[in-house]
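Hello,

Our lab assistant flagged a job as stuck in the queue for most of the afternoon. It eventually completed. Since we weren't sure the result was trustworthy after the delay, we are filing this so someone can double-check. Below is the sequence as submitted and the structure that was eventually returned. Let us know if re-running is recommended.
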Amino acid sequence: MKALIIGAGIGGMAAAAALKQQGIECDVFEAVKEIKPVGAAISVWPNGVKCMNHLGMGHIMDELGGPMHKMAYQDGKSGKVMTQFSLKPLIDDVGERPCPVSRAGLQSMMIDCWGRDKVQFDKRIERVTESADGVTAYFTDGSVAHGDFMIAADGARSVVRGHVLGLELERRYAGYVNWNGLVAADSSIAPIDQWTTFVGEGKRVSVMPIADQRFYFFFDVPLPVGLEENRLTLKEDLKGYFAGWAEPVQKLIDELDPETTNRIEIHDVEPFDTFVKGRVALLGDSAHSTTPDIGQGGCSAMEDAVVLGMSFAGNTTIEEALLDYQDRRHERAKDLVLKARKRCDVTHGKNMAVTQAWYDELKQEQGDKIMAGLKDTIVGGPLG
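-- returned structure --
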């Protein structure tokens, strides 16, 4: 039995690993000539770490995961701590730690685990057809590949999604722009073992520790869609958006490199229930494109892969396995997309009265409520 895996990102490589565990041969195709991830880092919460362990890639988390032992929110203007707490109770409760990691490092090591020479790069899918004996992928370079079934992990702008749904979906602008990148960890900006977030005015500035004494940083600003990007004025732009904010925020802006800082207009896709058509299944962002507001995009793709493997272990035919995968994943995936959307609106000032009420709650927070919310999301995964 052979699977065609479309996409060599986190979801695609996790799916390949899960299917390999079930003795299924996989051919992996990636659209780009080399992996250049959008986004500098990713927060892999304990549910994602458990998935990586299950898939035999837990060592990647050990190597790349940053020392995120605490969490804090601070007032953007004054810098005053609103709440600060240890994540140890959460870690003890769910049985695994969160691992913020370099996205490029994660994808590269997942590909290396599979075998870089076994991934076919520069293969952009154009269309897919199905017949009685399997599926055929047609690529823009004129090449063709045939397999018994297809797992489409081809991202938020998925080509294969149109085949599965029979229509093209529009992405929904979430209302804000995100700048992100990596800088050297600096205790004058924030403790180097803490996820620190400055909030105010519906905006957000955050630093999260990853391996090798680095911070992953991001800035969120509610803005109209379609504004021109200019790296030459990036620092000046951020200084304007965060004028009057606390000194650590100003220092972070001073230390970032505009040439390696990503600017992303954040979108999601309205959740849908159909992940499968015949012998073609969607996985990861192609099935449930989400905003990054609860840090579950990558984790959800890893969960998809784990469930995919479980479904093939528990069913006798390809069609049964893929439908079982769909049945076990679509509600969970929808829940995560909508949770992220709700958090996005609160965080980014869609209704400033609601956002201000959240700021006021943070000043009373001891960590219990936040960790309870994190736990609820984490334990909803396939591995508990």
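-- support follow-up --
The delay was a queue issue, not a problem with the job. The result is valid. DSSP finds 13 helices and 18 strands in the chain. The mean pLDDT is 97.
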